[in-house]
Amino acid sequence: MTNKVALIVGPGHAGLGEALANRYGQKGYTIALLGRNPNPLNDLVKTLTASNISVFSVTADLASPASVSNALKEIAQKGDLQVVLYTATMRTKNKPADLTSDLLTESLASNLLGAVTVTNLALPYVKKTGDGVFLYTGSIVAAKTGTSDVEQSIGKAGLHSYVIALNKELSKSGVFAGIVTINTYIRKGKPGHMDPNVIAKTFEDLGNNKKAAEVQYH
């Protein structure tokens, strides 16, 4: 039997990527971690391997479709790509009046454009499984922006619109797309609603139930 692969794009350091990897890994998925910098990816591979999770990492620049395409080809050699979890984000402190198109474009590579690139290039692989899932990490800043998170807000607002439309388009294809909008902080090691393990379960539930395009997590 071919391995089922769950890809986590931009696992980050807040703990959500690790929690998602543990949750899907314990369900029998081989976990693929994709990011730009190899060192944190390798550290996370060691952590997950110690928990008996089947995991590997690949590097790619989300601003480069060719780089993402090559990474996906490598991932596809490990099994059937069935789940894509997009958790990449970029937080900056640039004020609106100081924002330039170059600064915004740089942040959009993680907050929005990378999600579009990954989805577009991964979709042919995921469609082959017949019941694949794309899940994306949304944020409260998409609707409630401040002066210090305007770039992330613009990206997450665009991501929200993109995923809702994608869900409608894919609804009859067997592939599901959904977004979890997180209305709290993520705090690794802190019990309660900020616990990334609790948040990760919300992602899994959305992917399993497929009843709504969006879940608001509080």
From TrEMBL:
Similarity comment: family membership: Belongs to the short-chain dehydrogenases/reductases (SDR) family.
InterPro entries (UniProt xref): NAD(P)-bd_dom_sf, SDR_fam
Example of a GO MF term: oxidoreductase activity
Keywords: Oxidoreductase
Database matches in Pfam families: adh_short (PF00106)
Name of the protein in its database record: Oxidoreductase, short chain dehydrogenase/reductase family protein
